[in-house]
Amino acid sequence: MKLTVWTYEGPPHVGAMRVATAMKGLHYVLHAPQGDTYADLLFTMIERRDHRPPVTYTTFQARDLGSDTAHLFKDACQDAIDRFEPEAIIVGASCTAELIQDDPGGLAETMGLSIPVIPLELPSYQRKENFGADETFFQVVRHLSKPCEKTARVSCNILGPTALGFRHRDDIEELTGLLFEMGIDVNVVAPYDATPSDIARLGAAHFNVMLYPETCEAACRYLEREYSQAYTKTVPIGVGATKDFIAEVNALTGLSGAPDDSRLRLPWYSASVDSTYLTGKRVFLFGDATHVKASARIARDEMGFEVVGLGCYNREFARDIRALAKDYGVDALITDDYLEVERTIEELQPEMILGTQMERHIGKRLGIPCAVISAPVHVQDFPARYSPQVGFEGANVIFDTWVHPLVMGLEEHLLHMFRDDFEFHDAAGPSHHGGHAPKPMDAVPETAPDPKPSGSDVVVWLAEAERELKKIPFFVRGKARRNTEKFAVERGVAEISVDTLYEAKAHYAR
Known about the structure:
Blueprint lengths: L11 H11 L3 E6 L7 H8 L8 E3 L12 H15 L3 E6 L10 H6 L7 E3 L9 H16 L10 E5 L8 H14 L3 E6 L5 H5 L6 E4 L2 H15 L2 E2 L7 H15 L12 H5 L11 E6 L1 H14 L3 E7 L5 H11 L3 E3 L3 H11 L3 E4 L1 H10 L3 E3 L18 H27 L34 E2 L6 E2 L1 H7 L4 H17 L4 E2 L1 H12 L1
Parallel strand pairs: 1-2, 1-3, 3-4, 5-6, 5-7, 7-8, 9-10, 9-12, 10-11, 12-13, 15-16
Antiparallel strand pairs: 14-15
C-alpha cells in the first residue's frame, strides 16, 4: 500500500459511506479501529451537510485485539438499530479492520435482525473509493429491488448521484426539469435522497439514466439484466452531449420531446468576437473519467481550446480514457499520483488546467489558471447557489467557470501594462473616490537594480529583461520565464538579457 499526503480517492469504505450518507433510512455499521472514524469531517465540513453521516463504528482499540472483537461488532449493530431505527443496514470493515478478518457480514447475519442486512466485501488493498460506491450501490439494489408494474406514464430512474459528488445535488434538479420537458417522469433518484423503500420500486421505471458511471454502472447492468430496463450511455454534460442525450432518450422511449434551449448562452458567446482571444488556448484535463470525457469535448468542440493532455485517476476507466486520448492525438495519463500529474503539467506548460482540487493547488504553484471540473473537491465547490454541470444551464455554468479565470487574467495583464499610468498606479486610489485626479508620483530611479538570481539558481535576470518579462501576460509569464532559463542554461548563458528573452521566444515558437 502506498501512503501519500494527498489522494484522489479514499479506500472503498469511503465510497460505501458516500452511498449510505446520500440515502435516508439506511445505516452503515463499520468495523473500524479508533482513527478510521473521520466521516463527519468529510460530509459536514466539506459538503456542508446539516446532519451527521449515518455511520456507526465499532472503534476497537489496540487492547481489544487480544480478545474477541466480534462481540464489539455485534453490540455496535444492535445499538445502531435500537437508536436510529433504519429500514436496512449495510455492514463492512475499514481497510485496517479488514486485516483481522472478523467477517462483519457473516456476524450480522447470525444475529437474526428484523431488517435487511446487506454485507459488503470491499477489497481495501486492491480497489478504491469509486469502486466502493459502485459496489455498495449495486449490493443495495440487488438486495432491495423488487419486480414492479411499470408506471402509467413513461418514467425513468436517475442513478449515480451520491454524497460528496461534484455538483450532484444541482445536476439532479437540472436533469429532472429536462426530462419533464420531454414528457418523462422521474420514478426514483438513487442513491441521493432515496430510501430502501424507494429502491424496492426501481423496477417500475421504463429505463434508467446512468448519470455517473463511476458510481452506478454495476447497478444499471443488474437492472437491465433482471428487469429489462435499458440505460442511457450519454452523460449530458455540455451542449453537444445534452443534445445527444435527448436524442438517445427519445430513441429509447419513442417520444419526440424537445426541451427549451433558449436560455443557452454558450454557443452565442463562443461564436462572438469577444471570445476570439480564447481560441486555441492550450488546456490540460485531469479528474474522474466521466467529467474528463465530457470536458474534453466541450473544450475542443464548443470552446475552441486545444487539448494538449488528459488523464484520469480511476483505473477502471483507463481503456476509455486511452481511446479518447488517441482520438485527440495526445497521450493519456492514468495515475493516482498527483506528483506525476504535476510533472506532466510542468512539461506540457498549458495555458489552463481543468482538474480537481489537487490540480488547483498545482496551478497555484505553477502560476497557471485552473478551473475545477471533477471530484475530489473542497468546500468552495459545494456552493450554496444553484450550479449544475448537466443540461443547458450546466453548459452556461461550465462556460462561466472556465472563461472567468482567463478573463480575469487578461484584466490583470492590462492593469500591469498600464501600471505606470496616472489613473492606474497604486497611489491613484479608486475612481469613485476621486482617484482619477492626478497625484504626484515618486520619481522612478533611472539606475537599474542589481540583477536578481532566478528560481533556477543557475542564471540571473538583468533588470531590463525582468521589466520586459513583466509585459507578458501573467498567465503565461511563468512558462516564458522557465523556457528562457532553460534556453540560457542549454547554451551556457549566465545572464539573461532582453536579447536572450526574445531569442528564446523565437526558438520555442518554431
